[in-house]
Design a protein that fits this description.
181 residues; mainly beta; 14-stranded mixed beta sheet
């Protein structure tokens, strides 16, 4: 099991994540503590295939008791009641607003060549509201070194560099997240 701690530079928060790669699946358990603009604690749990594809995700907001449970079935997403969410159809990965772990999913899932931009349809989960939407995001591998990778990340009008370690986990997302451990 690997442990990661990230500091949220935008909202004075921290995240503690445990990633456990088993022979046939990957478990991710994480707790996010956010200080501002609205303080909250969120726990999320991913079940992934060995290829880093999302099987299901659960998110719990502690103080409010709000919960979200999504399951992926082929190209479709189902809620906790197994009701199809057609607005999310076609999305492959999940992006939770308050964690850099989300960036790991498309990075680990695919092979990368320097300079090639890749497009991803993402299920975006806003915290702490748990509102869902499908977003298009882009990643471009800019540089590979012995210490890791530099990617350009784009979504709507936003663009930044993301620095990943050799295993595909965020080291620095400038001005947003920095890994402590």
């Amino acid at each position: 099991m690997r442990t990661y701690i990230w500091r949220n530079e935008e909202t004075t928060g921290l995240e503690y994540a445990e990633v456990e790669e088993l022979s046939d699946k990957i478990h991710v358990n994480s707790t996010i503590i956010n200080g501002s603009p609205s303080a909250y604690k969120a726990d999320y749990f991913f079940l992934l295939t060995k290829q880093w594809e999302v099987v299901n995700i659960r998110v719990i907001i502690a103080a409010s008791g709000r919960r979200l449970h999504l399951r992926k079935k082929g190209e479709k997403w189902l809620d906790a009641d197994k009701k199809e969410l057609p607005e999310l159809t076609g999305a492959i990965d999940v992006d939770i607003s308050a964690t850099p772990f989300s960036n790991t999913l498309p990075i680990k899932r695919l092979s990368w060549e320097t300079g090639h931009k890749k497009e991803f349809e993402m299920v975006y989960i806003e915290l702490p509201s748990l509102q869902l939407q499908k977003l298009t995001q882009y990643y471009t591998l800019q540089e590979k070194t012995e210490r890791g990778f530099t990617f350009t990340y784009e979504c709507n009008d936003y663009q930044t560099k993301i620095y990943m370690d050799e295993d595909g986990f965020v080291i620095s997302y400038p001005g947003v997240f920095t890994r402590c451990v």
